[in-house]
Design goal:
The complex is a heterodimer of chains A (about 550) and B (about 300). Chain A is an alpha/beta fold. Helix content of chain A is about 30%, strand content about 25%. Chain A contains 17 helices and 22 strands. In chain A, the strands form 4 sheets. A 7-stranded mixed β-sheet of chain A has the order 19-20-21-16-12-11-22, sandwiched between helices. Chain B has about 300 residues and is mainly alpha-helical. Chain B has 13 helices and 2 strands. A two-stranded antiparallel ribbon of chain B has the order 1-2. In chain B, helix 2 runs parallel beside helix 5. The chains are: A alpha/beta (about 550), B mainly alpha (about 300).
């Protein structure tokens, strides 16, 4: 269903206007003379290739970063507020700096974060309640001299926060600390928090990243309801895979290219994307299908699927997982059977195999990969790598033997340059498409660039025999995927295991070649026990 | 009995210091080594005003608290920009400068309390009168103890109201993630000013209590060792907001008493042993996460 709004009112309803915004980092001009207009009630999609400056622009518009030049005007409750850059010299003497996140938030601009950033020491209810602006209780003088008014306002605040949580179906969980929720729930709670802070304009930083089908639907529903019912203006920054979903919902698309913004209608962008053909990964899978790959699909409890793309005449077995059970804080994460008991997860990867694990959020994809690489201990079961038992072997030893693991975002060596990262990993020279970045330190790269570096580093490492990849294409744009997809093909004598959220656009198993035979059934419980007893310690 | 009163007075004094440092450490997230500096400011202001002008207790304490709050700007404004290690250096600088100021603002020929000789340097200020509230003189140890307990009760009440309030909640948010809090519109710089102001004025109140009880102040009360001792109490006591600091104070003050009762061989010096025990406790608290109370969340995590 299309939610295109009626004709835009170009005279009133202008909420935010930026003109001539420029920003460079160390000689690199990221934004050049960016101008944009934001109208009330619109849903705007901001897209761009990796390192196009999306995050920089987002940070400028939310007050976290000052541009080198330009003006930014925001219509707040008290009228139009304008910020000019570069700031005059006397404004630097003023310790109460004008352009700060809290000042911009006061004008009605809110944001959500890529890494969510709910406050871990506060309960969920408190996370929402803390956002209310202008609380009397935040002034120590009021607290000590006029406690009753403070308490009255606080009671109303809590009621409102509870109501907001109720709308998210989280009302009964108001007192739990925020880290017992699913990813979709935390994202929606963070958005609700920004709404409670009084945002008229909401900047959402990758709200759909890392979510499975159910999570995406719930967040999309919330986005649409915020725009239509509450008349909140939304600017959504998103990457390639989720753009098709958002195009159905957006009113305007801003494309960042070459440091400039190009405004387009969603239909236009849809046509553009359709023209550039299938997603690179889907293309590659279609190629695999048409070649001699065989697909073995294994259904796992919890609505997950493990699809193994295997060439016939397969070689030796590289990774063998037998009856693996992994627990976290007492709960079984990996290896539960249909009844909830510890059945154990089993599968086998041979030379040349590419395995894709698709599972919903919270299933435990990262836990499984952590267990295979040795970062967390397994409760039961065996992991055999090239015939060697890996239980109890430390991670560094497993890495030396050939288990390479690319973790989901956030694990980079911030101050090493790209060149140094490759050297440290023994991955050979930096590939051509990264040569321009070779001397830049990792923390100066954009998120997508860091992901590209990590992925390239892992896939170029010559001695890796088993490559574990946790959502590797998360932040990559089309160009980056084009360059790295061929590296998915494991070199001779190795295999790959890739984890993806369920129903991502990269669903691996084409129906025609699915082979349902050879599905691994967890052994009966008694067998497991016998196996362990004769095996000794795990 | 007098000794017990004496211990209680010191307990109250250190408790006030520990509670206020806890505000800075656990609610704002800054490690400050300058707490004894503000304690000394309070003590010296009390000494100078009561010796020079003979005011009664409460107005002097208010003046001392106000001055300490004003001086806390030296900590809170750097806190806007600096975090972690850099802030510790700044607090160390404030502490050293305060000690140096107190130590050196003296000249031998000028009268006490004049602008040329404000603090009387290393000779200190003797003869500070006992507290006097509305004509009631607190001249016995027992009565000073009652005063100390009253002060502790008032400070604890204020502290408790503050931490359970929306202000305390916003401070926790600030400590968890300052950038996210700022993007929600929280005026974090103002919160830092308020936290440091309140904490430093509480330290000054403790200083005034000390000066009025002991009757003599000297520059050594603002030594770095004192700051570290207070920090020890806060860290060892654990992370529970109200009980933690109080427990830490209790343990640190009781250790010398316990050591006194243990029969030690003659070559072991009780004073050094005390310092050794403090050091070991601090290291275990930091390294093993060992604190006096096993907090509930940790117990759940391990089950």
């Amino acid at each position: 269903m299309n939610y295109h709004s009626q004709q835009r009112d170009t005279t009133t309803g202008l909420l935010l206007q930026a003109a001539g915004l420029s920003k460079s980092f160390g000689g690199n001009a990221v934004l050049k003379n960016v101008s944009l207009h934001l109208f009330e009630g619109n849903i705007v999609l901001l897209r761009g290739e990796n390192a196009s400056g999306k995050t920089t622009l987002l940070n400028i518009l939310t007050g976290n970063l000052a541009p080198d030049a330009g003006t930014l005007g925001i219509k707040g409750a008290s009228g139009w507020e304008e910020f000019r850059f570069p700031k005059s010299w006397w404004s630097y003497l003023n310790p109460f700096s004008h352009f700060t996140p809290e000042r911009v938030a006061h004008e009605g601009v809110g944001r959500s974060w890529q890494d969510i950033r709910l406050f871990p020491k506060l309960s969920l209810l408190d996370n929402i309640a803390v956002a209310r602006p202008d609380q009397f209780g935040e002034n120590p003088a009021w607290l000590l001299l006029r406690p009753f008014e403070v308490r009255r306002q606080e009671r109303l605040n809590e009621q409102e926060a509870r109501r907001l949580l109720g709308e998210l179906n989280l009302a009964e969980r108001g007192h739990l600390l925020s880290d017992t929720l699913s990813l979709g729930q935390t994202k929606r709670a963070a958005i609700a928090r920004a709404v409670h802070a009084g945002a008229n304009i909401l900047f959402l930083d990758e709200p759909l990243a890392g979510l499975d089908e159910h999570g995406i639907n719930s967040v999309l529903d919330m986005i649409v309801s915020l725009a239509r019912k509450e008349r909140i203006t939304l600017v959504i920054v998103e990457h390639l895979f989720h753009i098709p979903r958002l195009l159905k919902v957006a009113d305007v698309v801003w494309t960042l290219r070459g440091g400039q913004i190009f405004e387009q209608a969603p239909d236009e962008v849809e046509r553009e994307l359709a023209k550039s053909g299938l997603d690179p990964i889907r293309q590659w899978i279609a190629e695999a299908e048409s070649s001699d790959y065989q697909v073995i699909e294994q259904a796992l409890p919890g609505e997950a699927t493990l699809s193994i793309l295997r060439r016939p005449g397969t070689g030796a077995c590289i990774l063998r997982v037998e009856d693996l059970v992994v627990r976290r804080q007492g709960r079984i994460i990996i290896g539960s059977d249909a009844g909830g008991g510890p059945g154990g997860l089993s599968f086998e990867l041979c030379e040349g195999d590419i395995a894709v694990l698709e599972a919903p959020n919270g299933w435990g994809k990262t836990t499984l990969l952590d267990a295979i690489s040795g970062l967390i201990p397994s409760d039961r079961g065996r992991i055999l790598f090239r015939g060697q038992l890996m239980n109890g072997v430390p991670t560094w030893r497993r890495a030396q033997l050939g288990i390479a693991y690319l973790q989901a975002r956030g694990h980079t060596f911030a101050r090493l340059t790209v060149d140094e990262t490759f050297q440290l990993a023994g991955a050979g020279p930096v590939p051509d498409y990264l040569s321009a970045l070779a001397d830049r330190s990792t923390d100066q790269l954009s998120g997508g660039q860091q992901q590209l570096v990590g992925l390239s580093r892992l896939l170029s490492a010559p001695h890796a025999r088993c490559r574990l990849l946790d959502e590797p294409f998360n932040m990559l744009d089309r160009a980056a995927i084009e360059r790295t997809k061929h590296l998915l093909q494991p070199p001779a004598g190795s295999c790959s295991l890739v984890a993806m959220p369920a129903s991502s656009p990269y669903h691996a198993a084409p129906v025609s070649k699915t082979v349902r035979a050879q599905v691994w059934v967890p052994r009966k419980r008694e067998d497991c026990l016998v196996h362990i007893r004769s095996d000794g310690a795990n | 009995m007098n000794y017990f009163f004496h211990l209680t007075i010191f307990f109250c004094m250190y408790a006030i210091l520990a509670l206020s440092l806890n505000l800075i450490l656990r609610f704002c997230g800054y490690l400050s080594l300058a707490h004894s500096a503000y304690f000394a400011v309070g003590a010296y202001v009390y000494a100078l005003i009561t010796i020079g002008y003979g005011w009664s207790f409460i107005p002097v304490v208010l003046v001392a608290a106000a001055l300490a709050a004003a001086l806390s700007l030296f900590l809170s404004v750097p806190a806007w920009r600096l975090k972690g290690d850099f802030f510790v250096m700044i607090s160390l600088a404030v502490q050293s400068l305060t000690f140096a100021t107190i130590f050196n603002w003296a000249s031998p020929n000028d009268p006490l309390g004049s602008w040329k000789n404000l603090t009387n340097g290393s000779f200190g200020l003797p003869g500070i009168p006992k507290p006097d509230i509305f004509g009631v003189k607190f001249d016995t140890v027992g009565s000073v103890m009652v005063l100390a307990l009253l002060l502790l009760a008032v400070i604890t009440l204020v502290y408790y109201v503050l931490i359970k309030s929306p202000w305390g909640r916003s401070l926790t948010a600030l400590r968890d993630d300052e950038l996210a809090a700022r993007n929600l519109g929280k005026k974090t710089r103002l919160f830092k000013l308020q936290t440091f102001g309140i904490a430093c004025s509480m330290a000054a109140v403790a200083g005034a209590l000390y000066a009025s009880y002991v009757g003599y102040v000297e520059p050594n009360i603002s030594l770095l060792e004192q700051s570290i001792l207070i920090l020890c109490m806060v860290i060892i006591g654990g992370s529970r907001p109200l009980i933690g600091p109080l427990l830490g104070v209790g343990v640190i003050l009781l250790i010398p008493e316990v050591i006194r009762k243990i029969p030690l061989p003659s070559y072991v010096d009780a004073a050094n042993l005390r310092v050794l025990v403090y050091g070991l406790l601090l290291i275990s608290a930091a390294h093993f996460g060992f604190t006096i109370r096993w907090t509930r969340s940790r117990a759940k995590e391990l089950s």
